[in-house]
Each structure stands twice: as structure tokens, then as C-alpha cells.
């Protein structure tokens, strides 16, 4: 195999929107990737919770190769059988009823926000308001960055979109107080496990309480499962651990295992809000993207990847807890949070430097919310690979914390 020449780490032609590591990846296999210089890395980032089936999965590769020879894109002017098939697969696994397809997470969330506003207008609410959360991340379009609870994401882009009420997570009394006597509220919108905000899970009781409140007040419950969905926690969707169902559920990231696919799944309360002309997306639901989604779901089932995510995730969490027992006891590691293969190691100090140190040691990770190491590997990860994550990462964490002490 021949590889392209190494990319320049900072190209004069690519817009400067990312603080990139000086690494250019060339190819991958399973949970491993290699850079253009032939160095091997264990991938515990999975393209930020995207590469569900890992790299170069034979089933996905064959399906995509077959699909590009047939149709890549048509238009939503026509019926797209693969779209109908992926919609059916998502409806069956969510218990919801109808799906709109787009290409990214923020687009899925934009559609959700439009659904909520029109839901309000349809019942005579002229200025609908949507409850959103501290530390939330919903994307970087003007509306989704306005819904996001991170001042860094919003800085420089005002005026923000109006119509949001912000509350802290896991506090039903504050949600009730913030919405008391407000007839304009139409929806509550949150991630079942906040990703970018630092791997912060909503409590099961809280999820059930919000569902009951939405029912009592006739609000839409909208759960952003862009990062925590698609089997990552061991169930298809993270909210399913609480035994509830949302009215609106945006998806993206892991849905196409690396091919850009976004979707909004709606239940009966939200399924008929849009009519022709209300919403659309040129690329949304195209045959190549839909084939990727269908093949991802079928392969996940054939290979038992939900059970694997739950089992290997628990194994990884236990391994981290054991290796970091002293740091947890001292409080230097505040908490190890998350479910399945969506884990966060929350340190008592900023730790962005660990990303490069881990890469130098052959491991790809990310740090989010300044002090939280985020592990969101492909769902095919084995227990042996999880052990390797622990073996590489934990000594680096210990050293960083000692240096700080
Ligand atoms: C990544 C993410 C988004 C945005 O997805 P894009 O595809 O980058 O637009 C939205 N919500 C959540 C929870 C995410 O993790």
C-alpha cells in the first residue's frame, strides 16, 4: 500500500477552526488507525462517537462499494426505498413513528427546534419558548448554538436566537419554577447524557419526572441522542434505560458509522407537525447515506454490538476505577461517569495536555469541558483493547496529577 505525502499540520488554505494535533491519519482497521508515517494508534475516540463499526469494516465497505455503483444521490423529489427502510429500522428500535433525514447533528436539532415552534404555533402560541440546559451542546448553527449552554460556543455570534429558557440538569423543582405560569413553553430539550459538556448523565428519575411533566403540560419532550444514541450505552437510545420515550429524538454521529447521516425521529405527538414545504434537506436521506445507516444497524445486530458496548464499557469503567483508585480516593480524580462506551474521567484540574501525551503513547482520546477525558470508542472494542486503553491512559493521568500536586 502507498500513502499520500504527510499533510502539512497547518495548511494556509484550510480555515483555522480547529486546534489540530500534528497527526495525519492514513488508514484504519477495527479499533486501530495508522498515521501517514506508519505509526499505530488505538482509537478510543472513534471520530468523536461516529465510527460505530470501527474502521474498514468488511460489511460496511462492501455495502458502500455496491451502493456507489448504483446510486449515490437522487433527490427527495422521488421516493427513496432505502430511506423508507432506514426509517422503519429506527421506528422499530425507538418505538416512535416517523423519521426525517438530514446529514448532521445540528441539522437534526434545527429540525427539532422547528418542530417545537410549529407545535406551539399550531396551538395558538405566537412566541413559543423551549427549555434547554446548562452545559448542553446542540451544535454550531445560530439556533443550535443559542440552545447550547456554553458561553465559549456563543461568544462573538450574537444576537442569539430568542425563545430559550435555561435550567440546570437533574433538578425537577428548578424546571418547574423556571416554567411556572408560563403559557408559552412548548418543549423541553436535552441530551440524555451530555457529551461536550463533560459526560453528564441525566438521572433516571429525572428523565421519568420530565416525561410526566411534559405529559401534564402538553409539552414536547425532545431528547438529543446525537452522541449518546445508536447503541453506545448498551441500549439503542440512552433514554431507554429510564423506560421512557421522547416525542422528538435527533440522531447523527454513530448512525452512519462515518458516513454523514442525521435523523429526527418523532413520536405520535410530533409526527404530523410538518407538512410539505415546511422543511427539507438536499442531501438528507440520499441512497448512499441511507445504505450506510441500514448496514450499520444490521451489522450492529448481527455482531451483538449493543451487548458488547454494555459489557466492554463496564469492563473499561471498572479498569479505570481500579487503576485510578488512589486518585479517586484523594479526590484528584473527581468521578468516572457514563454508561457503556460513553465514559468521562473527570479530573480536579484542566487536562487538555493529555490528548497529545496519549497520542504520543499510541492512544487517541479527547478532553472536553477542560477537565474531562472522554472515551467514545467504536462499539466493536474488545475487553483486551479496553485493557490497553487503561494501561496507556492511567499512568499518564497519574503523572499529570502528581505534577500538579
Ligand atoms: C456532536 C453533537 C451535535 C452536533 O452534531 P454535528 O454533526 O457536529 O452538527 C449535536 N448534539 C450533540 C449532543 C452532539 O454531541
CATH classification, class level of the largest domain: Alpha Beta
Task: Kindly identify the CATH topology of the largest domain.
Answer: Aspartate Aminotransferase, domain 2
Largest sheet: 4 strands, mixed
Strand order of the largest sheet: 1-2-3-15
Describe the structure.
With about 400 residues, this protein is an alpha/beta fold. The protein folds into 2 domains: about 25-55 and about 305-405, Aspartate Aminotransferase, domain 1; about 70-300, Type I PLP-dependent aspartate aminotransferase-like (Major domain) (Aspartate Aminotransferase, domain 2, 3-Layer(aba) Sandwich). Helices cover about 40% and strands about 20% of the residues. It has 13 helices and 17 strands. The strands form 5 sheets. A 4-stranded mixed β-sheet has the order 1-2-3-15. A hairpin with a 4-residue loop joins β2 and β3. α10 (about 305-325) runs parallel beside α13 (about 385-405). The radius of gyration is 21 Å and the shape is globular. The model is unreliable at about 1-10 (pLDDT under 50). The structure holds pyridoxal-5'-phosphate. Pyridoxal-5'-phosphate (PLP) binds next to α4. Pyridoxal-5'-phosphate binds near residues 106 and 138.
Amino acid at each position: 500500500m502507498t500513502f499520500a505525502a504527510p499533510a502539512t499540520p497547518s495548511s494556509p488554505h484550510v480555515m483555522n477552526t480547529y486546534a489540530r494535533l500534528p497527526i495525519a491519519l492514513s488508514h484504519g482497521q477495527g479499533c486501530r488507525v495508522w498515521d501517514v508515517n506508519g505509526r499505530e494508534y488505538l482509537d478510543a475516540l472513534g471520530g468523536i462517537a461516529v465510527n460505530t463499526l470501527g474502521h474498514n469494516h468488511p460489511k460496511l465497505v462492501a455495502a458502500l462499494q455496491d451502493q456507489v455503483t448504483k446510486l449515490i444521490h437522487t433527490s427527495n423529489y422521488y421516493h427513496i426505498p432505502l430511506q423508507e427502510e432506514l426509517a422503519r429500522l429506527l421506528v422499530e428500535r425507538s418505538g416512535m413513528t416517523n423519521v426525517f433525514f438530514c446529514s448532521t447533528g445540528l441539522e437534526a436539532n434545527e429540525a427539532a427546534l422547528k418542530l417545537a415552534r410549529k407545535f406551539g404555533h399550531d396551538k395558538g402560541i405566537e412566541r413559543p419558548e423551549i427549555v434547554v440546559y446548562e452545559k448542553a451542546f446542540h451544535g454550531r448553527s445560530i439556533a443550535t448554538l443559542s440552545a447550547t449552554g456554553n458561553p465559549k460556543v456563543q461568544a462573538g455570534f450574537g444576537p442569539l436566537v430568542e425563545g430559550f429558557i435555561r435550567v440546570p440538569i437533574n433538578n425537577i423543582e428548578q424546571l418547574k419554577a423556571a416554567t411556572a405560569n408560563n403559557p408559552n413553553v412548548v418543549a423541553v430539550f436535552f441530551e440524555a447524557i451530555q457529551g461536550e459538556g463533560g459526560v453528564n448523565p441525566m438521572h433516571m428519575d429525572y428523565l421519568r419526572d420530565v416525561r410526566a411533566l411534559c405529559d401534564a403540560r402538553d409539552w414536547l419532550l425532545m431528547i438529543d441522542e446525537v452522541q449518546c444514541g445508536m447503541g453506545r450505552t448498551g441500549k439503542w437510545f440512552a433514554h431507554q434505560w429510564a423506560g421512557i420515550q421522547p416525542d422528538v429524538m435527533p440522531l447523527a454521529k454513530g448512525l452512519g458509522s462515518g458516513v454523514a447521516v442525521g435523523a429526527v425521529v418523532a413520536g405520535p405527538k410530533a409526527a404530523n407537525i410538518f407538512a410539505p414545504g415546511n422543511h427539507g434537506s438536499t442531501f438528507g436521506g440520499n441512497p448512499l447515506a441511507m445504505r450506510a445507516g441500514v448496514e450499520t444497524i444490521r451489522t450492529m445486530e448481527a455482531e451483538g454490538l449493543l451487548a458488547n458496548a454494555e459489557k466492554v464499557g463496564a469492563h473499561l469503567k471498572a479498569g479505570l476505577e481500579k487503576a485510578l483508585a488512589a486518585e479517586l480516593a484523594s479526590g484528584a480524580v473527581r468521578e468516572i461517569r457514563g454508561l457503556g462506551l460513553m465514559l468521562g474521567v473527570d479530573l480536579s484540574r484542566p487536562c487538555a495536555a493529555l490528548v497529545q501525551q496519549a497520542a504520543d503513547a499510541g492512544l487517541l482520546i479527547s478532553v472536553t469541558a477542560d477537565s474531562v477525558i472522554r472515551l467514545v470508542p467504536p462499539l466493536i472494542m474488545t475487553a483486551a483493547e479496553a485493557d490497553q486503553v487503561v494501561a496507556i491512559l492511567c499512568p499518564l493521568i497519574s503523572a499529570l496529577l502528581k505534577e500538579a500536586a
